[in-house]
Amino acid sequence: MSKLLSIIIPTYNMEALLPRCLDSLLVPDALERIEAMVVNDGSKDGSLTIANSYKERFPSAVTVIDKPNGNYGSTINAALPVAKGKYVKVLDSDDWFNSDALVKFLDSLETLDTDFIVTHFTVIHPGGKKELAKYNLYGKEPYEYGKLYDLDYVLGGGYIRFFMMHAITYRAQMLRDNGYVQTEGISYTDTEWDTYPMFYAKDVVFLDLNLYQYNMDREGQTMDPKVLNKSIAQQEKITSKILAFLEERGLDGLNSGRQAFLRQYYLNRLRLICKSHLFDIDRKDFNAEHFAQLEQEFQQVCRKYGLGEIKLYPENKIIRCNAMKYWHKHHKRWPAWFESFNRAVNSVMKTLYMLLFR
Description:
This protein has 2 domains: 3-215, Spore Coat Polysaccharide Biosynthesis Protein SpsA, Chain A; 225-357. The protein is built from 13 helices and 10 strands. The chain has helices spanning 18-23, 47-57, 72-79, 99-109, 151-155, 172-177, 190-195, 225-230, 232-249, 256-280, 288-305, 323-330, 336-357; strands at 3-11, 34-41, 62-67, 85-90, 96-97, 116-124, 130-133, 148-150, 168-171, 203-215. The chain starts with a strand and ends with a helix.
């Protein structure tokens, strides 16, 4: 039986949080329209048992795929080919949907026929503080909700620098027609989910719905800065993968606005990897020889595709020192005292920003 929306739920050792995730989906007005696809990635706890218990209670709405551990991308690859929904969205098992927004979302999907749908999401920060994330610019929302836009027009508008997984829903057949697969065996492959369809999706709709509830208030969460800094090698591998996709697809033939968006997107991705090495990881873990080789590869990509110069300024906007220029001149990171000073200024400015604008 076909469904309106397939929700892929990658699951690894999430017995404590999986029930909250599934309960947010399995509400009366959604049951007949969704397919909640729990993909158990070799969990060693009771996640599979919990998933199967929900399948028994909601046989028309829940499917369970049990597979050996292959990390995040393997769960997407296992689910997407057999998803029954016209549309597909990924929901991490430690996160959840706003149930009321889900019903309204499904009502909207009934009327749509588009490649790409964007919704709001809530970020739950450590300590429980919530932040609403919307795709707008300085409080101005440039696109009319519910209106179908050509994606070339949106990407060329300059308002949006990137999309995050939590905001994205795709037409499932579009992904399958373009041979979509994610890298297996490592984390952070949701970057591929955000990237590859930007090369071929044709149209987009923005909906004024706060659907995804993104839980960062959990120790060990992959986007925890402590975890991120220990996982730089995996982030580099994913960056290599999306660079390989750029090499395979190229930019020729794409609308000039879409080309500009992708150039800026890739430049920002390279900048973030450089930032991890020059700003974020512990100084004792910094390997100048490795970074020199990596940065040389990045510069070659920048020249080949006209991405521009990788610049790396502090987040505080006060210290206007380009760390990449310092690296090129001295072949090392900033002095330890300067890094400490920069972090202190960053912290002060972030606190002031939150007090003034949030």
